Amino acid sequence: MPARNPFAEYTNNKIMTASPAEITLMLYEGAIKFCNIAIIAIENGEIEKAHVNIKKTQRIIEEFRNTLDRQYKVAEDFDRIYVYLLQRLLEANIKKDKEILEEVNMHLRSVRDTWKEVMRRNRQA
Known about the structure:
Distance between the termini: 48 Å
Radius of gyration: 16 Å
Helix content: over 70%
CATH class: Mainly Alpha
Order of helices and strands: HHHHH
Number of domains: 1
């Protein structure tokens, strides 16, 4: 029988009990984390590790695109942002360019911070 992993259990419970807004925030945090790992990997010459983490970031952004509620006008704005980020990630992956990744990360942090503010305001309402 495998050993119990309390951290894995905690993480699983956190995800399973999270609201959709909290899950979205976790995904933004994950995309930022993977982008940071890719930046460090490029700095250290770890090309495969950079590639894997850029792909993880791309998959999260693709999921954001796929789950946009297109009945709202703001979805078009988010789609344009996500398409741009995906294009930049592709370019960063081809060139292994950490400056592009830093730009993507800046945009991800900005959207994440806006999302956190929306969540905060909704709790106060």
